[in-house]
Amino acid sequence: MKEFWKGNEAIAEAALRAGLEAYFGYPITPQTELLEYLAKHMPPQGRAFVQAESEVAAINMVYGAACAGARVMSSSSSPGVSLMQEGLSYIAGSEVPVVLVDIMRGGPGLGNIAPSQGDYFQLTKGGGHGDYHPIVLAPASVQEAVDLTYGAFDLAEKYRWIVIVAADGNIGQMMEPIELPPPRRVERRDRGWELTGAQGRPRRVITSIYLQPEALHQYNEHLQRKQREIEKHEVRYSEYLMEDAEYAIVAFGTSARVSQTAIKWARAKGIRVGLFRPISLYPFPYARVAAISQRVRAILVVEMNSGQMIEDVRLGALDRVPISFFGTMGGLVPLPDDVLPAIEKMVQ
Amino acid sequence: MLTEEMQVVFDYPDALTEETTHYCPGCTHGIIHRLVAETIDELGIREKTIGVAPVGCAVFIYNYFDTDFCEAAHGRAPAMATGIKRALPDRVVFTYQGDGDLAAIGTAEIIHAAARGENITVVFVNNAVYGMTSGQMAPTTLPGMKTTTTPTGRDVEIAGYPIRMCELLAQLSGASYIVRRSVHDPGNINRTKKALKTAFRAQLNQAGFSLVEILSSCPTNWGMSPRDALTFVKEKMIPYYPLGDYKVAEAVKTIAQ
Amino acid sequence: MHHEIIISGFGGQGALFAGQLLAYAALAEDRHVTWIPSYGPEMRGGTANCTVIISDEEIGSPLVRNPTAAIVMNPPSFDRFEPLVKPGGVLIVNTSLVSSESKRSDIRVVKAQANELAAELGAAQMANVVLVGALVAATGMLKFETLDRVLDEHISARHRDKLDSNKAALRRGAALARP
Ligand SMILES: Cc1ncc(C[n+]2csc(CCOP(=O)(O)OP(=O)(O)O)c2C)c(N)n1
Fold first, then answer.
1. Are residues A131 and A268 in the same domain?
2. Which residues does ligand 1 sit against, CB inside 6 Å?
3. CATH number of the domain encompassing residue A157
4. Inter-chain residue contact A336 with C66, CB threshold 8 Å
5. Which A residues, 254 through 283, put their C-beta within 8 Å of a C-beta on chain C?
6. Which of A8, A35, A36 to mutate to test the interface with B (most CBs of B within 10 A)?
7. C-alpha span between A149 and A10 (Å, rounded)
8. Nearest-5° Cα angle at B230, B228 to B234
9. Which chains does chain A touch, 3 or more C-beta pairs < 8 A?
10. For residue A206, what are the β-bridge partners?
């Protein structure tokens, strides 16, 4: 039976059902209900909840719990995620599994608390120092936010990597009917790397320091092989009315939903346009974008930023088709009424 | 028209703009703004004062003060103030910070500004809660106090103990004037005003780091009427956060008199 | 069916709850539905609104510029949303607070002295429920039995003694709007 849930709370419940053992976070709008929900539900269930003194501390607590082998996550919104970038780089350099939820808001700086997709670069391109790309999954509905969060822990553990669920303020604040997945109890088992005390086994060390350039080079090559594996197996996307499309919109998250309505309106006017929606922002579906660019006459990219994902769309489509852009910044959410003229312009 | 026997005893401070504040009914930020503004007026330093705004309910303080102002990232005001003061040592630099800003995310910055004896003034408003984000636990939330992240009351086993910042900062050699006051009634408001004046004069006298912690109420997020909230300050906050002078360096003692 | 509804009023007038009432009822009737609030500091003391979309089809954009229906509970909400309602749409006005008159002839305007009507039924805070009753009667978007059931399930413990008055408030609003 479907239940009506607010995005932030649904994500928190999905994480609990996925077997979340420890959570560390700091209040920030528009993500706060997620933290508040876990503050209420985790301690009575004997799970670890700590309101950290900052996002810097929160991500390092996450780092520690992950080293200890716990299913762990944090959540924040854009300015907080900026603060976490140092910790995320260390986590990538140590290969421990971590889940992070980013309910994006308008920037740069303090910006505002309205929905935005301005973190595309800082999430998908590594954000912190060094060479790494976290897996980044972008839901377009509360149900999809639940499903992606529920699956994020297994994915993080499979690759010993960071998985970021990247939603915007809209999805965090919106209520929609959802079906919740069944609660799971994840048995702790030794995977050969976690720190549990060197009882009856040789000691283990988790570190990200490799003083010899050759050693660090080799370690980076290992990380890069992992990234290629992720790129091979974890690409996700969804398509809407693409079968007969002569034109395509590429958009993710809330802007994809808004575009979907604009597409319906455009179809009613006889324009054969469809939607290509990347779900994994990293790994980006370059191959699929390339295939689409061979089929359609033009591509319109719609984002709630000044044009960040469009760079990846260009890498996929190259110069095969004209690519235009419609974006809103500052936490403004585009409406179908705004996207329709951009479609009409693309068709001309 | 003023006649000869009449004199102005109460006026609108020059250091405040005429902007209406956005604070909730019963919030004491407004009182504290006025006290800081009066202090600036009385010391005649409006044109050489630079304020640093926090992230918190006072985030828009720059709309209310007729002085130069900048906005820091959450918790970083003392670092930003350090930069300004080092670049312009003859200006008066103050930060205005909440308890989350100063005692959680910005703990490192405040401790090191004090340890360096940074010649700035800090107005520290302690309302025991994260106001702007709607009532989560603050580092100063009292044991047992309900907030949205301590829904059954702050459990010190899980969330630890509240921090007494004045007591902590008073240990540092660089600190010159560290006091705690309250604004829950007129007598205490007057004492707060005096302390603010001493703190700014300490800076003008190159005495080093000065900080006035002010116990403040948050009726909205405490879920109380403004009057009950002031009673809470008096009966619950003050016993945990005793008012008083935690450090008054020799150089400041003469100013205070 | 496809309805796009904006409900707007001062914080505390119950605009967000009114929207949730519609949304829960839509879910109970197996429709697709989204509810999205305006959020943030502007809510305190200022005007809060929510957008509810109820449809037989999967919902794309959860936000709209031109709703098919709007409930405006205070003057700023009237000024903002009265011009935006789609031609052929419905505007429900709380005339207890709004004195402006709509000049539009291409929409149906239903006026309700909601605060007074709700007070007569026992609590002025039920003005939002009166207005929902008017909206549902004017559009036929949901069944009243479903709204009753949703009230049974979702009314807070604090207001449980007012359950029957709430149901009466729905009917009182509906009576104003029946064509
Ligand atoms: C890096 C970062 N994390 C979180 C926030 C969200 N945030 C804004 S104000 C605030 C707390 C403010 O509380 P306090 O300093 O006690 O001041 P008050 O609002 O009570 O006056 C938080 C957590 C932010 N703006 N930036």
1. no
2. A 26-28, 55, 79-80, 83; B 55-58, 74, 98-101, 127, 129-133, 138
3. 3.40.50.970
4. no
5. 254, 257-264
6. A36
7. 10
8. 110
9. B, C
10. none
- The SS3 of residue A49 is strand
Q: Which of A24, A28, A32, A103 for a ligand 1 pocket mutation test, highest count of atoms within 8 Å of Cβ?
A: A28
Whether the complex's predicted ipTM surpasses the cut of 0.95: no
What b/e string do you get for B38-65 counting C-beta neighbours within 10 Å, with b at 16 or more? bbbbebebbebbbbbbbbbbbbebbebb
Two structure tokens written together for C160: 């449980």
CA distance C40 to chain A (A): 7
Q: Which residue of chain C is at minimal alpha-carbon distance from A265?
A: C60
Contacts of C42 in chain A (CB under 8 A): none
Predicted local confidence at residue B1, as pLDDT: 57
Beta bridge partners of B65: B16
C-interface mutation test, from B23, B134, B218, B221, most C Cβ less than 10 A away: B134
Closest listed residue to residue A312, CA positions, set A341, A333, A342, A283: A283
pTM of the entire predicted model: 0.94
Give the tens place of pLDDT for each residue, C58-111. 999 999 999 999 999 999 999 999 999 999 999 999 999 999 999 999 999 999
Confirm or reject contact between B186 and chain A (CB < 8 A): no
Alpha-carbon distance of C141 to A74, in angstroms, equals 41
Cα gap B115→B257, rounded to integer Å: 25
The DSSP code sequence of A173-197 is H-EEEE-PPPP--PPP---SSS-S-
Query: Which residues are bridge partners to B70 per DSSP?
Result: B52
- CB distance C44–B24 less than 8 Å? yes
Q: How far is the CA of B134 from the centre of ligand 1 (A)?
A: 10
pLDDT of residue C42: 45
The CA-based angle A152-A157-A158, given to 5 degrees, is: 95
Domain count, chain C: 1
Handedness of CA C64, C66, C72, C78 (dihedral sign): positive
Neighbours of C94 (CB within 10 A): 26
Residue contact B158–A50, C-beta within 8 A: yes
Pairing of strands A135-137, A162-168: parallel
Domain boundaries, chain B: 29-256
Measured at the CA of B251, the angle between CA B245 and CA B256, to 5 degrees, comes to: 50
* pLDDT tens, position by position, B155-206: 999 999 999 999 999 999 999 999 999 999 999 999 999 999 999 999 999 9
Measured in Å, residue C133 CA sits from the centre of ligand 1 at: 40
Give A105 Cα–ligand 1 centroid separation in angstroms: 15
CB contact (8 A) between residue C44 and residue B132: no
Same domain, A191 and A256: no
Instruction: State the Cα–Cα distance between residues C170 and C135, nearest whole angstrom.
Output: 10
Q: State which ligand 1 atom lies nearest to the alpha carbon of A110.
A: 25
Contacts of C121 (CB under 8 A, 6+ apart): C165, C168, C169, C172
What token pair was written down for A183?
């609660």
Residue A146 belongs to domain spanning: 3-198+208-233
Q: What is the CATH number of domain B29-256?
A: 3.40.50.970
Check if the beta carbon of residue B105 is closer than 8 Å to that of residue A53: yes
The number of beta carbons lying within 10 Å of the beta carbon of residue C79 is 12
- Residue B220 with chain C: CB contacts under 8 Å: 44
Residues of B in contact with A40 (CB under 8 A): 151
What is the domain range of residue C123? 2-177
- Looking at residue A300, which CATH number applies to its domain? 3.40.50.920
